[in-house]
Design brief:
Layout (H helix, E strand, L loop, with lengths): L8 H20 L1 H29 L6 H20 L1 H29 L4 H23 L1 H29 L7
Helix pairs in contact: 1-6, 2-3, 2-4, 2-6, 4-5, 4-6, 5-6
Length: 178
């Protein structure tokens, strides 16, 4: 089967280079990466707060304008607090990741036991669910260390993907028939 659209060799090599560069940045500066993530998260909350605050000015049909303005002020206060207290923000992000992992772990284990599928697929769902549960428990018990470990894992992952793409682009790029 032939692909309808094959990326160019240069596109593959550029993607490889960018992946390896991102991975190196994550590995060299995991704390800075976490700090940037924290600041972006806090700024996002702040922007949402301002958007909510001014929403009644643009939507004259809003029947809950007072509540919307109060929620906007709360969002702005939360955004400022999170910007001033990056450690709290990092912990919140870690807890959200942990809860996400726990929910998906439980649901994958449930699917592994409840779904009607081949035994191999059921075992894989249970295995993935157990891994997600263990990861979620680890991050819950060590929020900041868990997030830094996740940054390290993403760094190694992006470098490996970049290396594989680079090798593919340099040595195994398919010859396209014209």
């Amino acid at each position: 089967m032939e692909l309808a659209v094959l990326p160019s060799r240069n596109a593959i090599l550029l993607r490889a280079l960018l992946n390896m560069l991102l991975g190196a940045i994550l590995l060299v500066w995991p704390g800075l990466t976490l700090y940037v993530l924290v600041v972006l998260f806090a700024i996002n909350i702040l922007i949402l707060g301002f958007a909510t605050l001014f929403e009644p000015a643009f939507d004259k049909t809003n029947k809950s304008a007072v509540l919307t303005v109060l929620l906007g002020l709360l969002g702005i206060a939360a955004g400022i607090f999170l910007l001033v207290r990056p450690g709290v923000t990092a912990t919140i992000i870690a807890l959200l990741i942990a809860i996400w992992a726990l929910v998906f772990g439980i649901s994958d284990i449930y699917v592994g036991f409840a779904a009607k599928m081949e035994a191999g697929a059921r075992i894989l769902f249970v295995l993935v669910g157990i891994i997600a549960l263990l990861f979620g428990i680890y991050v819950l018990s060590n929020p900041l260390e868990g997030v830094l470990d996740l940054i390290w894992a993403i760094g190694f992952y992006t470098i490996i993907v970049g290396a594989v793409l680079g090798i593919t682009g340099l040595f195994f790029y398919p010859k396209v028939k014209k």
